[in-house]
Design brief:
Strand order of the largest sheet: 1-2
Order of helices and strands: HHEEHHHHHHHHHH
Radius of gyration: 18 Å
Number of domains: 2
Number of strands: 2
Largest sheet: 2 strands, antiparallel
Shape: globular
CATH class of the largest domain: Alpha Beta
Length: about 240
């Protein structure tokens, strides 16, 4: 197994995110990066970060956070969220899907470094998870200026891409903010399983391709919100304004 070595504490996070799963990253990096911007260290929460810190002036700080699973928060973690981030609760928005997500076939990810299959998968998520995506965007539509941010967790990579696309982020910035999410690895899958290497790495290039797919299919994330989610032009402008305030 190859190993990355470093003598500096200033790390290239997009570069680390693109690291091959077979390359061992030193424990110093793994223990240091999650405590640095754009991440916010909170016990029991993995990969918590503020979308305002992903190269865009169009999303105000402390409004939209993304993270890994939030199913096992301790009272200490909940207190930190409320005190430091003004997040007083976590509400589930995992509403019923419009259809069942197709089973993942790892062999499909082996082709073209997984990009084509991930774009297909993310396109499917954008369609069948429309009720959950719309619910989050409704909160952003109705949020008041004085309210703090609230967190939820449901296909957060796609949600981040939709929000950042609406905010006017360039595809490169949006892909950096949205990448880093990974669908569950099923029991029995190993690094030697065909397609596992490609599946395990949600690279920025994958999200770039997903943003391009949304542009071609919907005319961008604004078109997705209008045509697939049913928001009016006025509602879309309200969400965009609330992101900036």
């Amino acid at each position: 197994m190859a190993t990355i070595t470093t003598t500096t504490h200033s790390y290239n996070i997009p570069g680390l995110a693109n690291t091959d799963i077979r390359v061992q990253i030193p424990i110093l990096i793994l223990s240091t990066v999650p405590s640095q911007c754009p991440f916010t260290p909170v016990p029991d929460i993995f990969n918590l970060r503020d979308l305002a810190h992903t190269s865009t002036p169009n999303i105000r700080p402390d409004l939209v956070y993304c993270s890994g699973g939030l199913n096992s928060l301790s009272d200490t973690s909940k207190a930190l969220l409320a005190k430091d981030l003004n997040i007083e609760g976590v509400s589930s928005v995992q509403l019923p899907c419009t259809a069942a997500l197709a089973a993942i076939d790892l062999k499909e990810f082996e082709r073209g470094d997984g990009r084509r299959e991930y774009v297909r998968l993310y396109g499917e998520i954008m369609e069948i998870y429309r009720p959950s995506v719309r619910k989050v965007l409704e909160f952003l539509r109705d949020v008041h200026h004085e309210e703090g941010g609230r967190a939820g967790n449901d296909r957060t990579g796609i949600l981040a891409a939709v929000i950042m696309g609406l905010a006017g982020c360039l595809n490169r910035a949006a892909s950096r903010g949205a990448s880093g999410h990974l669908d569950a690895i099923e029991e029995g899958w190993t690094v030697d399983t065909t397609g596992m290497v490609e599946f395990s790495q949600v690279k920025g290039s994958v999200m770039d391709a997903t943003m391009e797919m949304a542009e071609e299919k919907y005319g961008g994330m604004e078109g997705y919100m209008r045509d697939a989610l049913g928001f009016s032009d006025q509602e879309i402008e309200q969400i965009r304004a609330n992101l900036r305030r």
